[in-house]
Amino acid sequence: xxxxxxxxxxxxxxxxxxxxxxxxxxxxxxxxxxxxxxxxxxxxxxxxxxxxxxxxxxxxxxxxxxxxxxxxxxxxxxxxxxxxxxxxxxxxxxxxxxxxxxxxxxxxxxxxxxxxxxxxxxxxxxxxxxxxxxxxxxxxxxxxxxxxxxxxxxxxxxxxxxxxxxxxxxxxxxxxxxxxxxxxxxxxxxxxxxxxxxxxxxxxxxxxxxxxxxxxxxxxxxxxxxxxxxxxxxxxxxxxxxxxxxxxxxxxxxxxxxxxxxxxxxxxxxxxxxxxxxxxxxxxxxxxxxxxxxxxxxxxxxxxxxxxxxxxxxxxxxxxxxxxxxxxxxxxxxxxxxxxxxxxxxxxxxxxxxxxxxxxxxxxxxxxxxxxxxxxxxxxxxxxxxxxxxxxxxxxxxxxxxxxxxxxxxxxxxxxxxxxxxxxxxxxxxxxxxxxxxxxxxxxxxxxxxxxxxxxxxxxxxxxxxxxxxxxxxxxxxxxxxxxxxxxxxxxxxxxxxxxxxxxxxxxxxxxxxxxxxxxxxxxxxxxxxxxxxxxxxxxxxxxxxxxxxxxxxxxxxxxxxxxxxxxxxxxxxxxxxxxxxxxxxxxxxxxxxxxxxxxxxxxxxxxxxxxxxxxxxxxxxxxxxxxxxxxxxxxxxxxxxxxxxxxxxxxxxxxxxxxxxxxxxxxxxxxxxxxxxxxxxxxxxxxxxxxxxxxxxxxxxxxxxxxxxxxxxxxxxxxxxxxxxxxxxxxxxxxxxxxxxxxxxxxxxxxxxxxxxxxxxxxxx
Length: 766
Known about the structure:
The protein is mainly α. Helix content is 65%, strand content 3%. The strands form three sheets. It has a three-stranded parallel sheet with strand order 5-4-6, with no helix packed on it. The chain has a two-stranded antiparallel sheet with strand order 1-2. α3 packs across α33 and α29 packs antiparallel against α30.
């Protein structure tokens, strides 16, 4: 291990002692990230969702304002896109600059994870983030995933650093990471729940190891009350799952919601009747009562001063006091059937509350109560730290949600409407994907490497013995010593990343809306822990030059690839040795050739590895295996990002724009230039209902046409337009309006990936 670490620390040239091999490799990774994120960024057609984000950001850039709507997630993306338009102009390329930059920043953040992943682990994790299909594709996509990925990596880093070092700095970073996430997307509630649960277990484990004033009575009472709280909370969750009655819609209906301003309807326009709410409320109150009781015995037996000195408690208070006011949607949602009050999720609903004093009293009352509880808990914990972290979070939150104080209603649609909207969407289940969408479709097709890496990491982590605490006390590690830091912090890092990887898959599988892009949130934590696992193998595999390493690695690679070929041939549509027809003979040949190569390469491996230890063989085979998986992963990422990006052959997209969109715009622009000398050609487009019109993404691409009009029902006035764009569902309506004097050209506007996997079941025939 020392020799490998020393090699990384060795300078490339004596004239540049600070330019080490490690720094050079990481610089190459960052360069690859920049090139891969920005290359050919404008070619892909804007998808349905992208056009929503780009268009309303464009309106904000033009000074036409912006109103927050939970349907399009947080306001950060719209503000940063508007700023990008101001700095660099308006185009498909510039619209994707923020996502690309944050994607590169996510890779850059791995440099700071060296103290937790090890030097080799951080380099490997950075490279895997670059070639990951999801990290690459959605690092070039106008969605919030790139912002969320960066905030997630930053948040976990802040948690680990504060557990290690304490102080205020990392609490500030945590608050900033949460501010970015809560102003970007409602996945912030899932991330915060994951963090709070992990820290709660960590805190309980810490206080359980320390002496109490009354080691008997108070300690036992605390554990009993805590167990009762967990029991009632589990019963509430289980009952909620049991009573869940999803109103499933079709994919075409649910994937194309109307945009604010085009359709004023809201899924929360009427109070929802939740049959399981009374029971859930009772169980929740019982759990809360038991939790308060446990807190009482904890404070009395462990003392408040010792609780405040726990670093995990600092993190719990920062995250808890920040998220608490935004949980107001839960009691309102549970009680809205009794109170006859709906959660406002749009600006119009917030304004309409002025005519309903009861609604104002309930909504504002719950929100104010939650803010008061949050402030009381924060001031009781640590006045200075709470005020500082609250300022860091709520200042950008308020500025962005109110559109720089021009739309005060946005504060309410953010604090209570964001969660309220997605509580209802949980039952709507947009997309209607099956429960196995991630574990059997998305992850195996694209993120198979980090999924297998997670399994490897769990095996290695459970077998690894952490450094004894006494050693740290007697020999405090140097803050700059990456190897000792990684060893000392291993238990926290391993448990946090495993927890985050597993619970991310569970949480997003349970979530009602299962969409391809949400796989992004499962990919990056698995990549981080895969980087640690592979780095651990590299650091603990000691080889010498006499072992003919290049030849041995090549032989192992050939053996593994030929074995894969044999397996593929055996599981192909035509098994080998089935007959003498050409296709059957080709299948037999496709089996025999890799089989022969496998036997010969196996013999070569036996010869070359005859003097290797079993550990060396095991580690080397594992590393070569993952190197081959990296090649396949890079290929999948490259194809999705640069070759098939505009076609419905990839499963990591949904409601995908087709090449015909840009072809139409190019032809319309050419006609306009020839007839008007600019973009003043009379043009009309079909703006009927979202599932039959062409508004999205055409409103984005038609933004510069000065004589454009939209229509719901075609009339003879369309004959004044030189270009008419209409959805195929309305062709029968358009022909009588236009008459015979037009040229018709058919294009594909949007398509969906194959979804035959919807019918998968245990009893399905192969």
